[in-house]
Amino acid sequence: MYKRATLRGFLVFLILAVLTASFLYPLYFMLINSLKTRTEYFVNPFALPREGLQLINYTTMISQFKILTLFKNTFIISTGTVILILLVGIFASYAFAKLRFKGKSVLFVAVLMTMFVPSQVTIIPLFVSFSKVGLVNSYLSVILAYLALFLPEAVLLLTANFRGILDEMVEAAEIDGCSYLQKIWYVIIPMGRAAIFLAIIFYFIMSWNDLFTPMIFLTKMEKRTVMVALASLMGRYSGSPTYQFAGLLLSAIPALIVYFIFQRNIIRGLSMGAIK
């Protein structure tokens, strides 16, 4: 039994090590090549830099990129998207998970069915609707489009998590005099924090890395997001891959920061309850 457990643990460790290496290697590849000259890259893209660290690749991208403006635009959109998804998703998921009302199952299935509608199908009606009310070239247009696109998945994720919360916990809070909002704040959110933090990470990164939606709704240069600007720079520097790697790494930094901030809270949330 001990040998089997040891072998099983070793296999799990080996699989996790391989997966970790496969995820980290692209970042390593971009990092070493973003610090090379163009000639070094074409000679051997897998070798370490030998002619000194070419930080000029990053300074060029920052000067051409207008990095602070792009980060501000994308951060506003990504943060607004996450906030709206959580506000709507938590209340909707609580209703689907804990409340009893007629037609709940049908409504839940109808919400989930919208997950199978491609965003490309709805983009033209959304653009026409937003243009009529003057929302094109505003952050709100992209945030609302993301809300419609991501909310069904968020409801599915949060509902599945909230169903695992004991009904007795909610009933005890109600006996203690908690209102509807207080039950969500003191019971549902603390006990469902693992799924909530996972949603924060996932939908922030999804909205940060998206190219299609902001490219359609934000046509003004000063409203561009990181990915839209990066796509134009990829064409401008198509013959200089070292610049491209530098731009890709710069655009990935905020998403990586958000991941590292909240990934610990996912693990912590799995072991914490509504102790208030």
Give the structure's gist in a few sentences.
The protein is an all-alpha fold. The protein is 78% helix and 0% strand.
Write up what this structure looks like.
This protein is 78% helix and 0% strand. The protein has 276 residues and is mainly α. It has a single domain (60-270), classed as MetI-like fold. α1 (2-34) runs antiparallel to α13 (241-270), α3 (56-65) crosses α13 (241-270) and α10 (193-209) packs antiparallel against α13. The two termini are 42 Å apart.
Give me the secondary-structure topology.
Elements: H1 2-34, H2 38-43, H3 56-65, H4 67-98, H5 104-113, H6 119-132, H7 139-162, H8 167-175, H9 180-191, H10 193-209, H11 212-217, H12 226-236, H13 241-270
Helix pairs in contact: 1-13, 3-13, 4-7, 4-10, 7-10, 8-9, 10-13, 12-13
Major sheet description: none
CATH superfamily: MetI-like
Strand content: under 5%
Percentage of residues in helical conformation: over 70%
- In terms of quaternary structure, what is this? single chain
The averaged pLDDT comes out at 86
Query: Low-confidence parts, pLDDT < 50 over ≥5 residues?
Result: 271-276
Rg, nearest Å? 23 Å
CATH topology: MetI-like fold
Q: Termini, distance in Å?
A: 42 Å
Count of the separate structural domains: 1
Alpha-beta content class? mainly alpha
How many individual β-strands?
A: 0
* Number of discrete helical segments: 13
Order of helices and strands: HHHHHHHHHHHHH
CATH domain class name: Mainly Alpha
CATH architecture annotation: Orthogonal Bundle
Shape: globular
